[in-house]
Amino acid sequence: MCVLAWGGGAIYSCAKWKHSDKGKEEMQYAVGWSGSLNVEEGECVSSVLCIPLASQKRSSTGRPDWTCIVVGFTSGYVRFYTESGVLLLAQLLNEDPVLQLKCRTYEIPRHPGVTEQNEELSILYPAAIVTIDGFSLFQSLRACRNQVARAAASGNENVQPPPLAYKKWGLQDVDIIVDHASIGIMTLSPFDQMKTASNIGGYYAAIKNSPPAMSQYVTVGSNPFTGFFFALEGSSQPLLSHVALAVASKLTSALFNAASGWLGWKSKHEEEPAQKQKPKVEPATPLAVRFGLPDSRRHGERICLSPCNTLAAVTDGFGRVILLDVTRGLAVRMWKGYRDAEVGWIQTVEDLHERETEKMDFSPFGNAQGPSRVAQFLVIYAARRGILEVWSTQQGPRVGAFNVGKCCRLLYPGYKIMGLNNVTSQGWQPQTYQICLVDPVSGSVKTIHVPFHLALSDKKSERAKDMHLVKKLNALLKAKTSDPGSILTSERVPLSSLTNITQTLMDNLNKQELECVDEGLLQFCANKLKLLHLYELVSKLNSQSIQKDTPPSDNDLAKLLRLEERDFRRLETLLENYKKENTQSTVDEKDDSLSVKMFLEYLEYEKDMINVKNMEDGEYVALGSFFFWKCLCGESSIEEMCRALESAGFSPQILLSLLLNLWLSKEKDILDKPDSVSCLHTMLSLLSKMKVAIDESWDTQSISPWWQQMRTACVQSENNAAALLSAHVGHSVTAQIVDSVTEKKFSQIIVGSDTESWEALSLDTEYWKLLLKQLEDCLILQTLLHSKVSRRTKRVSSLQTEPLGRLSVKKLLEAGKGGIADTVAKWVFKQGFSPLVLNLAQHKTNMDLLLQLAYQQFPCSLEVDVLHAHCCWEYVVQWNKDPEEACFLIRSIDHLRCIVNAHVQHGIALMMWNTFIVKRLSSATYLMEKVSADVGMGDTAMTAFLGCCSDLLQTLLEADVSSDEMQAPVLDTEDAWVSVEGPVSIVELALEQKRIHYPLAEHQFVLCTILYAIMRFSLKSVKPLSLFDSKGKNAFFKDLTSIQLLPSGDMDPNVLSLRQHFLVKVVSAVVQTLCSSQKAKEVSEEELFPFEKGKNWPTLAVDLAQYLQVSEDVVKRHYVCELYSYGMDHLGEEAYLQVADKEVLASQLLILAGQRLAFALLHVQTKDGTELLARLPPTLCTWLKAMNHRELQNAEVPIAVTAKLISKVMEHLPENHGQYNLALNLTEAVEAISQ
Q1: How do residues 448-497 score in pLDDT, each as one tens digit?
Q2: How much is the CA Rg of the chain, to the nearest whole Å?
Q3: Among 721, 785, 826, 1074, whose CB has the most other CB atoms within 10 angstroms?
């Protein structure tokens, strides 16, 4: 069993025997359960173990019954599950995250003096280690599993399993612990006992008569790098766990967790508080480190204990693997250069060759003739180098090295089956792997086996190796069942030997009596012998060199394919263009030779006919290449090859399939060899003349399955050039056969007449002509898709770099009426063309020739409105994938505006709005209203989005008006593509859309423009929805084709006041932006906001005022005042003309002129200014002093410009106006300053 866990989820996989694709039985991992394991909020899986539990049945003693999955979490919980994901136990023994789970199972002691080790599960925490007694755990898990089974069956039975017995040690005097190894119980020798007592207690230390038993733990981390801990047996009493028992109820189908003790069934209300309360966590018994390997700079990463419990391999942060003698606490060996290494162990038992298998004792370490020796091998997987090494320990050499991938994982459990003892383990047979390597690239699990003789010295090793090989050979020879097919599948046996072996076996079988002969074996040999002879014959034909014919001229090829010279030149041009743009090879270039092993695997005999087994495409091509490639290249005799294959028992249909697969896959080579076309023609003619190729009952008015098979292959192929050439050859051969049939039929009727210029008609030739047109269209499209026209210097999105798929006639026929336009739209998106380019190419200017050719080939499918509609949709779909790419949405709107027919434009715009825009716009609105909403865009992208929304609705409104003045278009399809099936095209969907409700769309447009203005000019403290009443708010984001209740009549004065204030802020921001852009001339407005496209914001503000029932003149006057405030008087004079109430504006500008004059006289300290101020009338002086020049955005304006402003004010102020005299005084003052 294999468990993969990540985050809070896991997948349980079980090994099962299954048939592979090639028909062989092999072990495969199948998903048994998958799901989420985390219960507490935020907890993740940190460690996993799969522990097989021994069966208690007498019939299966020593075998595993079921597997328990133990999972440690970052919350501190340890949970136990069945193979089906049912929770059995949940334990919280410490509140720190679980770092590591490790298990030790029972092993028979190798020598009489070795201490027998108990089973246990050890759990490592950052500062503590918990060990659970194996026997207690085994009994508890069995009881819990039985409890779950009974509860699921009846719902009322309950078993009280015993509590878990565990010990908890608090590890002290260590900075960091990352891994541990529980060595087990050890007993010191008297000398070691005295030495340890002296070290701890000094000279006067006393010792007991019997050495104490201790549990040893080794940790790795830092300070010390390796720590050794010894816990005296009996110094800490085992704790009884407060367990959480999970049981399944058939009635409620739920899992109940109890907090403390073993709980029976309770009511739902009694159970809930217990679930919420955390179990009591017992304190740890302090355990100080006895000694360690102090290396302050070295950080340990992993420790792996050997099966004999005497050695351990430790990996560290310096790329070293260190071998520890855990008994003495010493490092005995070090390997360098193994950064990120993973380690494991293999234990190999000596195999005594003289012993008979039937008489052997099943104990793993002993037999009737004496004890077997045991060897330990260290396995190191160096991930950085992708190499797996096997070393003999302690000081032995490297005995094996394998090149594996760099992404593998080495799995070493270090335990076997839990629940065995010294009796049940006697009959134990290995059921688990000692060690295995998981390769995620190939998806395989590999095991490692090391022969015992590799642990011996050189002299003994050679003899042991020879004995090992002799024994293997004896076993093979003594095997009762032998498969003759195994010899034939050998790659090393030459063809002649295989033929001789098979022939000899067949001769021997023929000599035997009929009753004794296995007919199946005889037939098997006969069939394989035929295949071997065929292989030999084909190899011979391929190796024979024949004199090549002179390559056919263009005229010869044209006649062969029955093409006019003009049509042949066109075909050549199309293929040449395709060749330039499609440079990649479609099939890996391999040697055309095929091994005997593969040949025999691919083919099989059935009733004197050869069948081809189900194979992958590459294998199918390899077989076809073996038969036909030399013939297609003109290097082998076509006639002899066809004769040999027909006589061998191949049906012409199989040969045609092999030939077409080869031809269509070798497109690049075929285009480089024009003479291969004539070879294909010859071969196809010969295959067509074979028996049962073309049915004898076939006439010209019916479809032949033979030619239909070939047409189907061409339709499905994505290699369009090869398919087109093969279709031309197929058409030519068909016409040739039809002509001969017709000539025989009518030779008696028409005698002596000139029939050379005639072409006999048949249904098949008409289908060929249709297919030739479709393949030619497909070739032109494929060439266009792989062409690179634009040379862009700007940043390219990753979405535009994704490769376009290859086309086939079948794909286009299944793509619906819009499939061709959709394909070209994807290419336009990839190239980043401007819509203008498409329009220019449509009108046959000197643009892209391939695009023009596509337009000529598809006048209906690529009609200008249809193509723009698909481009518009493609861009908005790609924008939806990455909303930060605002340029895609902008380009989509550009294509939408290029659609001429208003009906199509209206439908596409409405579909865009409903599918992609309205939800995001709603989120953006509520976000700006300070309500939490996720839009998924940054500020710049949001600004562009809102601008595009405004443009989209404006286009929709214009299209709705224009659609009354024109008719909906009639959508045509090219004759060759009338039979297309598939989804409805975008344009057809667009024409089916309902008409919008104009006032509702206009109402939505106003909101979009307001939102855009807020983002574009970074207006603060504006809540867009506050500018509308309740009716207006409710109408937003509704279906634009529906009738909604909209605001009518007089608006609330408070809302009108807010609207006017908003429009004034917009106008101020517009003028400020205009002034900033004029100052920073090096950065144009279009570069800052490419989506603006010359928007006239002052006009837009006036239009908004009209929609929002605000006085337009107020907005216009404010605009003029702002222009003069920024000192842009030349623009102010133009805007002045648009204002209706010029008297009020003149009064406002008079104050502005006064502020300028006050700044010039009072704040620019000059002697002349002071003297001039003294000569002014007192009322004017007082008025000027009251002016606040800080309200001006630009006070430093030349006095002559201010004089011009005052004269304009005088023009529009009547003489009876209250401020007329003040304006006169100002005029005189300005004239005085000017002098």
Answers
A1: 988 888 887 665 566 666 777 777 777 766 654 455 666 776 667 788 88
A2: 45
A3: 721
